[in-house]
């Protein structure tokens, strides 16, 4: 039998060189062997420039912790109740050069095992961004406990995505009232018409689908720059009032990109009961949308804000629904 390699008898620089060659999976397993090893690993990772990741906490059927490194490389740890998957590891490459290295860990108690894994990962790694993807109807009896746990680990996160088909106003409100989201929010979750949205000021981007609960007064409180609103109950008159408020600098001063549904395409004359200019369709403009992506627009309808900023409006279809697209230049 070979003797184990005495890693911690090496000089510190040599130890750090060994750690730098390890994958996150190996680092996590090594950190569990002793408190001394965990301390050395944590000190090294906290000072290393090449060990920064984005953290994704994903509540799905198999709760997941994902570390996104450089060059679109994802290291995923999934907690599974299937014994046959324990220790299974799969590597795959996808579109846009994204690469996924996935490892499964078996546990009879998925949520508790996931929480222990999250604690370990947050303790030893350094993260630039923290993102939560919450499938709200996968563990309905544990939703509030999950929110309390996330709050205990980090009081704020950069982005959050809610998904689900069960009407769960209370759980979504509990999350939004307890965890501050500093940048982006996506909600593809069923909510009642009486849902109360508690966060407006900190969101740079927001995507709501459906937005059946969104009132006009709530909408004009958004401070973000990128908004995608589908299924709102707004009338053409309310869309007209929004554009007038924007033109008079009374709302949405940071807006750069907007998509919002039009419920009555026959009443566009109501929406544009304001000063505007129709642009030659040969005029091409390039606007910037979220995540530094760009979009090319030809022609359109220009409206002017009192400070001289231009908003260019186009129309598009999503199935049988007409959308108003506005790009601010």
Automatic annotation (TrEMBL):
<protein>
    <recommendedName>
        <fullName>F-box domain-containing protein</fullName>
    </recommendedName>
</protein>
<dbReference type="Pfam" id="PF00646">
    <property type="entry name" value="F-box"/>
</dbReference>
<feature type="domain" description="F-box">
    <location>
        <begin position="4"/>
        <end position="42"/>
    </location>
</feature>
<dbReference type="InterPro" id="IPR001810">
    <property type="entry name" value="F-box_dom"/>
</dbReference>
<dbReference type="InterPro" id="IPR012885">
    <property type="entry name" value="F-box_Sdz-33"/>
</dbReference>
<dbReference type="Pfam" id="PF07735">
    <property type="entry name" value="FBA_2"/>
</dbReference>
């Amino acid at each position: 039998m070979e003797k184990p390699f005495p890693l911690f008898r090496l000089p510190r620089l040599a130890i750090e060189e060994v750690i730098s060659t390890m994958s996150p999976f190996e680092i996590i397993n090594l950190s569990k062997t002793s408190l001394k090893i965990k301390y050395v690993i944590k000190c090294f990772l906290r000072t290393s420039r090449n060990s920064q990741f984005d953290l994704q906490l994903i509540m799905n059927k198999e709760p997941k912790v994902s570390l996104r490194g450089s060059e679109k490389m994802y290291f995923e740890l999934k907690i599974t109740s299937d014994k046959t998957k324990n220790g299974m590891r799969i590597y795959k490459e996808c579109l846009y050069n994204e690469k996924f290295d996935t490892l499964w860990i078996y546990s009879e108690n998925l949520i508790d095992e996931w929480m222990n894994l999250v604690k370990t990962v947050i303790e030893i790694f350094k993260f630039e961004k923290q993102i939560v993807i919450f499938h709200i109807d996968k563990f309905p009896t544990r939703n509030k406990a999950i929110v309390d746990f996330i709050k205990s680990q980090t009081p704020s996160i950069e982005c959050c995505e809610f998904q689900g088909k069960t009407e769960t106003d209370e759980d979504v409100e509990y999350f939004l009232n307890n965890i501050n989201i500093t940048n982006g929010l996506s909600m593809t979750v069923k909510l009642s018409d009486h849902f109360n949205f508690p966060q407006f000021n900190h969101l740079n981007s927001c995507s709501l689908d459906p937005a059946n609960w969104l009132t006009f007064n709530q909408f004009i409180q958004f401070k973000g720059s990128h908004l995608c609103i589908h299924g709102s109950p707004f009338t053409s008159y309310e869309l007209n009032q929004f554009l007038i408020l924007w033109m008079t600098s009374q709302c949405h001063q940071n807006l750069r990109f907007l998509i919002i549904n039009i419920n009555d395409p026959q009443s566009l004359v109501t929406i544009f009961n304001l000063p505007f200019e129709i642009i030659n369709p040969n005029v091409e403009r390039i606007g910037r949308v979220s995540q530094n992506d760009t979009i090319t627009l030809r022609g359109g309808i220009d409206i002017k804000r009192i400070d001289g900023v231009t908003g260019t409006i186009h129309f598009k279809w999503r199935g049988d629904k007409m959308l108003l697209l506005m790009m601010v230049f």
